[in-house]
Every structure is written in structure tokens, then in C-alpha cells.
Amino acid sequence: MTTVQTHTIDAPGAVVTYDVHPAEGGAPALLLFGSPMDASGFAALAEQFPDRTVVRYDPRGTGRSPRSTSGEVTPEQHADDVQRVIAALGGGPVDVFASSGGAINALALVARHPERVRTLVAHEPPAAALLPDRDAALAAIRDIRDTYERDGFGPAMAKFISISMVKGPVPADQAERPGPGAADFGLPTEDDGTREDPLLAQNIITCTHYEPDFDALAQAPTRIVVAVGAESEGELAYRGGLAVAEGLGTEAVVVPGNHGAYLPAEYGMGGDAAGFAVALRKILDEG
């Protein structure tokens, strides 16, 4: 691919960094992003689209996008950051593949700036607030945040991994369960005292508690496709994707792999970026 170009944009409370893989051709630019994962997680997937200009970015508070504020970052803030990137690219409309918390933020983007996006592929949005078991799910997520504030990264991340692996409804008493130990997942057992983790401090509450504006999404010119992984069936993010699709009056498209199917191999999640790109390209080409 052509040499990657890196740029920054000033935003209220943050400096947002993004990478452009330029290519010749008439197709709209393709934005790839997640949350809280930074642009590096989409490097392998970007390489599968040499015929299109591909853009990756670091959400505020992650990677190379420092912020000057503290506390939670809302999907609306992330959405406004993405639209600033799109504006810098020429205004769009662009195509978007957004995964996990990025899919939540992309739904906020389309609701707030519908003219910026032609096609959105929203991959496994963890929309816990839309689930039938929302009370148990949201309580368990708040317990993860409380654990982080009290005990630090390792114990909280162990609880996060545990709830991510639940197949089916979240148990009503999940928030009261002690959860696995940090050592069970190879996580640090000592509290280093920091409380600025991009997931646990900045996004876990606002992301999972977000409820899409389905009225605004219905009025948008954007084609929205919800995608869920064939290996993720029953997991919270998979079920969140089904709930978002239902709210849109559509059916979710099943794509290969699990929640991290597109990740580079070094992430250790069994990702197959090349195989995943075939499915993603097919969805985009159908638009």
C-alpha cells in the first residue's frame, strides 16, 4: 500500500490523530474504527483494501489522541470527533466499518451527522441497554466500574472478560458475584493506582448504557448494516447487535469469526483479517 499519512485535528478537550492509506479510485473513503481500541487494531484489515482510501483513527483518550479532560467520554463526543475527521477528508459521505464501542459511536455519528456516512457496517455493538436483561447487564457493568475504582485494573478487567464470555442472558445476580481473580486471566494483581484506562475509566458506562436514536437513524440517508460474528452467538455484544438491528427494522448479517475477527494476529484473538475483509467487502459492494 501507499505510504500511510498521519494527521491530527484539534477538538474540544483532545487532539485526535488519524492515519490515511491513500489509493486511487472513485469509491468513497473507508473509515475503520473501534472504541476504546486505537487505530493499530485495524492495520491488518486496512491492508485488505488497497483499492480504496482507508482511514483509521485513535479515539480521544487512546493511543496517540491525548485528551485534557477526565471522566467518561460519551458516544456523542466520539461521534463529533469522527465527523471532524471526515470533514478534514473533504466532507464525505464515506463508508464506515465500526466495531464494538466504535459501532455505538458510529450510530451516534449517523444520528447526529447523517450526511457524513453513505454505508455504516456496525459490528457487534454492545448495546446492553436494549437487552431484555438490561437491568442485570447494566448492574454488572456498573460493578465492573466500581471494582476498577476500588481495586484497580486487574480485578475489574477480569470481571469484564467474564461478562463478555457469558452466553445468553446475564444472570440476575452477576453484579453480586465475586468474579474471577485477575491472575486467572494473567492480569496484574497489584493496583498501580492509575484510573485512566480507556475502557474502564472512559467508555464502559456511556457506551453500554447508550440507546440509539432510532427515529433519527430511520430518517438518515445512510444505509446501516448490523453485523454479528458467527462464533459470538449468545454473547452480550452479539445480542446487542441483534437488538440494534431489531430497532432499525432490519436483520443482522452474520460474518465470520468472533468479536475480534478482523484483528492482527499479534492480538492473540484468532483474527483472520483477510477472511473477514471478504465478508465486509461483500456488504459494502451491495450498497
UniProtKB/TrEMBL annotation:
Molecular function in Gene Ontology: triacylglycerol lipase activity
Against InterPro entries, the record matches this protein to: AB_hydrolase, AB_hydrolase_1, AB_hydrolase_fold
Q: Which UniProt keywords apply?
A: Hydrolase
The residue ranges of the AB hydrolase-1 domain are 42-171
Which residue stretches belong to region Disordered?
A: 55-78, 171-193
What Gene3D superfamilies does the record point to? alpha/beta hydrolase (3.40.50.1820)
Top-rank taxon, per record:
Bacteria
GO BP: any one term: glycerolipid catabolic process
SUPFAM superfamilies (alphabetical): alpha/beta-Hydrolases (SSF53474)
Which PANTHER family does this chain map to? AB HYDROLASE-1 DOMAIN-CONTAINING PROTEIN (PTHR43433:SF5), HYDROLASE, ALPHA/BETA FOLD FAMILY PROTEIN (PTHR43433)
* Protein name, per record: Hydrolase
Lineage of the organism: Bacteria, Bacillati, Actinomycetota, Actinomycetes, Micromonosporales
